[in-house]
Design a protein that fits this description.
Helix 3 crosses helix 4. With about 170 residues, this protein is α+β, with helices and mostly antiparallel strands. The strands form two sheets. Strands 2, 3, 4, 5 and 6 form a five-stranded antiparallel β-sheet that branches. Strands 7-8-1-9 form a four-stranded antiparallel β-sheet. The protein contains four helices and nine strands. About 20% of the residues are buried. It is elongated.
Length: about 170
């Protein structure tokens, strides 16, 4: 006698994750391009202007705040050209260091911070879409019975959250 066994994973609801990620290799490429341009520009001749990377923290070194702003402009344009979203860059204040040198730190935010995750969940609940949102570390998992509801949720997130880059991953049917 044969009995019917439901295939594994059939009773799982379609889902996807809302994340915020930045490709570390692209950041490294951006830094190399910025340092190369700064080393060849006439207005930076004789100065020790550069950008250093340590994980997701960037530090701009220059002679003064004006040159830091110039390097920051170069950094933003190179990042945009390489597909790195500049909205994830949290710029610190320029500060004076030894002598007449200055530096500025930039933190690249990765992952959905808890306040933003709570805001995403609240927006989804208020929208009355037939999906569930759950915060899982630095991601927000969205699940629902219908794919259309999930796609509507993606559209809603693109419209509602514009100040921070979000990606949608792990779409499971």
């Amino acid at each position: 006698m044969l009995s019917y066994v439901e295939p594994i994973g059939r009773n799982r609801m379609p889902s996807f994750d809302i994340v915020s990620e930045v490709d570390k290799q692209e950041i490294r490429n951006v830094i190399e391009q910025v340092n190369k341009e700064v080393s060849t520009r006439f207005d930076f001749k004789g100065s020790d202007a550069r950008v250093q990377q340590e994980d997701y923290n960037l530090t701009i070194y220059a002679d003064d705040a004006f040159k830091i702003r110039q390097i920051l402009d170069i950094l933003m344009s190179k990042a945009t050209k390489r597909g790195v979203d500049v909205r994830c860059m949290d710029k610190g204040e320029a500060e004076k260091i030894a002598g007449n040198k200055a530096k500025q730190t930039i933190t690249i935010k990765v992952g959905v911070e808890i306040n933003l995750a709570k805001r995403i969940v609240k927006i989804i609940k208020e929208s009355k879409l037939k999906v569930q949102a759950s915060i899982q570390g630095e991601t927000v998992r969205i699940s629902g019975k219908k794919r259309d509801a999930l796609q509507d949720t993606m559209t809603l997130m693109k419209k509602s959250i514009s100040e921070f880059p979000l990606q949608f991953q792990n779409f499971r049917d």
